[in-house]
Hints:
The protein has helices at residues 2-8, 18-30, 92-95, 126-130, 177-197, 214-230, 257-265, 284-287, 320-340, 370-381, and strands at residues 35-40, 44-45, 48-49, 53-63, 68-69, 86-91, 99-100, 122-123, 136-146, 149-157, 164-170, 204-210, 231-237, 246-249, 272-275, 296-300. By secondary structure, the chain is of the alpha/beta class.
Amino acid sequence: MLRWAKDLFPLCRSLTGKGTSRTLRYFKNINKEFKILKFKSGSKVFDWKIPEVWNIKDAYIEHESKKKFAQFSKCNLHIVGYSTPVNKTLRKKNLLKYIYTQKNQPSAIPYVTSYYKKRWGFCLSENEKKKLPNGNYKVFIDSSFNKGAMEMMHLKLKGKMKKEIFFSSYICHPSMANNELSGPVLLNAIAKYIKEKYPKRQYSYRMVLLPETIGSIAYISKFKNEMKKNIICGFNLTCVGDERAYTIISSPEGNTLADDALKSSLFGKKNMKIYSFLNRGSDERQYCAPGIDLPLCRFSRSKEYPEYHTNKDDFNVVTQKGLMESLEVFTNIIDAFELGLYPKTKIICEPNLGKRNLYPTLSQKGVYDDKVITRNDLIAYSNGKRNVF
């Protein structure tokens, strides 16, 4: 997972364009079951419209001394996402109107986008902005907008049952390791785990990689009926690569199979945090929207972290350990589904565990340890209706 993320880190991803397309095809080489889906520019999906395809070759600010700043070739966060092309000279006073900084993090370059309104701009650290010399500046953005298609992809791993477990993550952010790449690499690792460990599956699995918000809205517009019919449990994956916390953003009511599954898999974690749906922020907004109402919640490691949406979100934040711990959360859940989601005892009344060497045959106060009590409790609740979580 870490190698995949590092391979993809330099690409300038957005809602559309070459960086996003290359990212999708990189993952298709890992899990060949993925199928590319395309939505035409300008087509309507519910209350939204698919944007034009945006690509960028280069961008920079050049002082009259020939010194360059905000060079896209050095960091693709230097450009405001979806900036229109520009090639002109401005006085410093006028240029500053088009420069965005994160004042509360003066050494960080912020991530800024303008998807649905045409504008242009650059991003700098506040410290660098303050050092800009007086004089004239050439501003240059070599970008383009064209009719084409917004791409995404999904895979379906069929099981004995049509009931589906759903995983979603997004591929529309440029070079940030946790808020972007950690989710897609985890999703791909989960897909490989399911295929390799459970070639003959009980449940079916649906996985999507798409641009955030507009991508999930478009996907829902095409597959709404079968998703509502088949999905019994779903997870939106984002910011899953750090080691600082485990976070659940609950479903709207907090009572779905997905909520129970995550709480169970994270049981006993000292750094687990559970937020209500009022703290939603990613594609759970669409999957749980009124009229869709999928049984889905979001999983993250740290929901809020200082490096978020800046160039500081790098591989000091995302680690191999963090990714592996997140993978374990979901291998536990998948194992529970595949090995028996609804345990049912085969014996009427309590089974005789003593003759199986699973219960003390000498009765005395204090001989019943926690393992014995837990085993009896599990059996007492195994009626075939309660799920294992």
